[in-house]
Amino acid sequence: MMENVRLGIIGIGAQGGTYAGFISEGKVENMVLGAICDIDPAKKAMCADKYPDVPFYDNYIDMLESGNVDAVVTTVPHYLHPEIGIEALKRDIHALVEKPAGVYTKQVKDLNEFAATKPELTFGIFFNQRTNPLYQKLKELIDNGEIGNIRRTNWIITTWWRPQGYYDQSAWRATWGGEGGGVLVNQAPHQIDLLQWICGMPKKVYSNVKYGYQRNIAVEDEVTTLLDYGNGATGVFITCTHDILGTDRFEILGDKGKIVVDDSKKITIKRLKTPEPEMSATMSWADVMKIFTGQGPSDVFSEEVLEFESVWGEQHIAVLENFAANIVNGTPLIAPGSDGIHGVALANAIHLSSWLGKEVELPIDEELYFAELNKKIEEEKKNPIKK
Questions:
Q1: Percent of the chain with pLDDT over 70
Q2: Phi-psi category of 26—alpha, beta or left, where left has phi over 0 and alpha has psi -120 to 50?
């Protein structure tokens, strides 16, 4: 049995460098640094200095075939995740892909289908928010029917402020050809994944998206989306990168109560003493007026508040440990790689609705999305935005 998984890091930028640090400092159980790969010669010098005993490659295929790694993590531009994931699995190397799993569902489907032919290998996705105790608790509350059937979900997540300088730091950022989108593919995939993980996938999406609204970029920096779950339940998802004051508030209304999550730190659960449909059927208007004017029972609901502390880095370490544990002893994955397609499908649907100017149904027409995305890429080549 393998004791330590030798992880190869493909792309040693901000994210890859963070993971290398955690592993080399011995913070990740059952995992050691096997090799590092990057195409930037400056990174080679940096790694020789920082990780002198770790083999360095400028070609990821060479790394995969070196015998130095048991698994890899793909900290590279989004378009490359499926391709690298497939090449690793092809060579019987476990793959942990960064979010999003890809830019469009067509390429993510290829990755998922190939991974399914290698069930003996571990295939995970880096959804670190799934290891966040707050969101694990929230999922448990919803799964257990604590607030009954969901009627509405609202998530406003605008804590992603990014100045123009962020977009100007590399040529591929915030382009259709290099990144495949803006806030939906870069910052918000965590919330898009959590939304469907906790509340299920919507059946239809209608969106109003602004491209280069407050930033000199080609892609979206402002998103408002209406979700239709197909059973009467609706939702709203709002995100942007220009709100320096930022809000993170997630509300889920059910027929037996409401849950509100503030700043990803606090859960407030309001449980109705009597389910709303029953109250509606049995209470007279006079009873309601008594409650409103403070003369009747004020205890229509009970309230519970749960506070959570989040330590930076803990969730990333937890994903790496869970991935290693799955390889070493079969511990179930918190975020199986095949789950990555759901968030991509939702982001694609939000883009497509905006491009077509109408509501779209899920699953979307993948060929149509791909064709529309390619139009954007061609347009961008002809008229690139000068950053």
A1: 99
A2: left
